[in-house]
Amino acid sequence: MNIIYLHGFLSNSNSVKGILLKRYIEQYTEHQIYLPDLNMPPLQVLEELSLQIQQLEQVVLVGSSLGGFYATQLASRYHLPAVMINPAIQPWILFRKLFGQDKIPLKVTEQWTLDDTQLNDLEQLAAPFVQDASKVLVLLQQDDEILDYREAQRYYSAVTHQSMLITETKGNHGMDNFAEKIPMIIQFLSDSIK
Questions:
Q1: I want to staple 173 with a disulfide (CB 3.0 to 4.6 A). Which of 130, 146, 151, 160 is the partner?
Q2: The whole model's pTM is what?
Q3: pLDDT tens column, 26-45
Q4: Which domains does the chain have, with CATH numbers?
Q5: Of the candidate ranges 27-31, 57-61, 89-93, 98-102, the one whose mean pLDDT is the lowest
Q6: Alpha carbon separation from 91 to 8, 24, 100, 118 (Å, rounded)
Q7: Rounded to 5 degrees, what are φ and ψ at 132?
Q8: Are residues 71 and 63 in contact, defined by beta-carbon separation less than 8 angstroms?
Q9: Helix, strand, coil proportions of the chain in percent (round to 5)?
Q10: DSSP string of 28-46?
Q11: What is the pLDDT of residue 100?
């Protein structure tokens, strides 16, 4: 199994959850893991990830926050199993609310500045519902300080496209107890790829 971990906004390929997942996979499994840096415009992110997916076999995705949004689009496009961790559902709205018009364009890294065109691109990319919803596990925490967990609950529990949802009280956006969930995540992905 080839696992691609998609980090969130204002993070990078050395994110805490990505490194925890990598250590677990290397220590306890025969799987391969990839931690791409997603700090680039959304269309470029999806283009590069699509190329990577097409070059690998038995691909599964794990995405956190904005990475969860990307994972949803790619899982739908390529019919892949995926696990979403406190995923962003409408990041274009979230970023406009968080940063306002006075801070956009927002310099994210030396190479990438998020602008209104890219926010519009995110909106255009959004799938109306998740394809192959039975291959998707969504992990939510109610005390997420960035995202309203109910948006993800509504999106991933559409009547004809229901994913498996685990919603915990308390918690936070970073999902501090993520390490405890890794064995379950790997088992879900392994079962879904068969």
A1: 146
A2: 0.96
A3: 999 999 999 999 999 999 99
A4: 2-89+129-193 (3.40.50.1820)
A5: 98-102
A6: 11, 29, 13, 11
A7: 45, 50
A8: yes
A9: 45, 20, 35
A10: H-S-EEE-----S-HHHHH
A11: 84
Give the dihedral sign, CA 91/97/98/100: positive
What is the residue-averaged pLDDT of the chain?
95
CA distances for 135 relative to 92, 168, 174, angstroms: 26, 20, 23
pLDDT band (50, 70, 90) for residue 14:
very high
Which residues have a Cβ under 8 Å from the Cβ of 75 and sit 6 or more positions away?
Answer: 61, 81, 82, 130, 131, 132, 135, 136
In this model, does residue 116 exceed pLDDT 80?
Answer: yes
pLDDT, tens digit, for every residue of 133-180?
Answer: 999 999 999 999 999 999 999 999 987 788 999 999 999 999 989 999
φ, ψ of residue 162 to 5 degrees: the values are: -85, 125
d(CA 41, CA 187): 32
- 114, with CB counted inside 10 A (0-12, 13-18, 19+), is buried
User: What is the C-alpha to C-alpha distance for residues 134 and 113, in angstroms, rounded to an integer?
Assistant: 36
Q: For residue 73, give the amino acid letter.
A: Q
Say which amino acid occupies 129: F
